[in-house]
Here is the input.
Amino acid sequence: MKETGEGVATVDLRLDDIAFTGTALYRPECVLATAAGSLYTSDWNGGITWLKPDGGQERILASNPETDFKPNGFALLENGDFLIASISDDGGVWRLARDGTLRPYLLEVDGERLPASNFVLLDDHGRIWITISTRREPRSLGYRPDVDDGFIILADDKGARIVADGIGFTNEVALSADGKWLYVNETFVRRTSRFPIAEDGSLGPKEVVVEYGAGIFPDGLAFDAEGHMWITSIVSNRVIRLAPDGHYDILLEDFDPDHLAWVEEAYHACEMDRPHMDGIKSRVLRSVSSLCFGGPDLRQIWLGCLLGDQVGYMASPVTGRAPAHWHFPW
Here is the structure.
């Protein structure tokens, strides 16, 4: 499916409607919500910050780190533990217990050491999907339109193995409601793609759902109950609603045109680096990277930001689809 361009938004979102919660959060790149009213965010202090239903806030930090542990995307498990992708050069996926005990979950796959790791997803079948954005080191060398060395790992009762390779900076993944497709954001080739999922978990040939234009670097991914994908774009602070046929609407954006033009120039010159990611100019959002639905009826949107110290939230005009961890008692 090919790009259909920017349609006229059918959903009304406004920057001024965004409120914020949390105090002194440290790089809340990923956000997860549960029916119990909890909100969890990644914490670069070395763990997870738990925003409790009663308004309290608690850091669940690794008490025994033997690695440079930099939490990025993570999954909540039924017993309350977390599986966390570490985006440091040490990389790997780690299991953090609520008492702070940290132990390795996956450090290599198919004989290959895991580099900086991006995201972890628990699906409705209890399987774990892991994304590695790029094998390039430093990782910022993957901020290129020609990047093609990201991959996806599946871990299930058969073990862990690479099920897709050659991806253009693999970011968040999500399964379709029927479980037949795995969707993925390829951030720096600026597209959302999908793979058919076989019964054994293997993935078929990749299909491109949409290729985005200037200013869109897709990162976070969540489904609503109508089968549309909600996608966040770093740098331009865009929230996009993507239909299954590839049509998308930009529902929200917050950027300085001159700054975004500077980033675009560097991107096309293959010179994009950390200053282009870390020095964004915006009014409200600070490089929105993650989105999830929450609230008692899944009619609230939570927004995690790479450069923020709080989590944004606002009412959702549509109901979100419940994730696998939604009814966990945490």
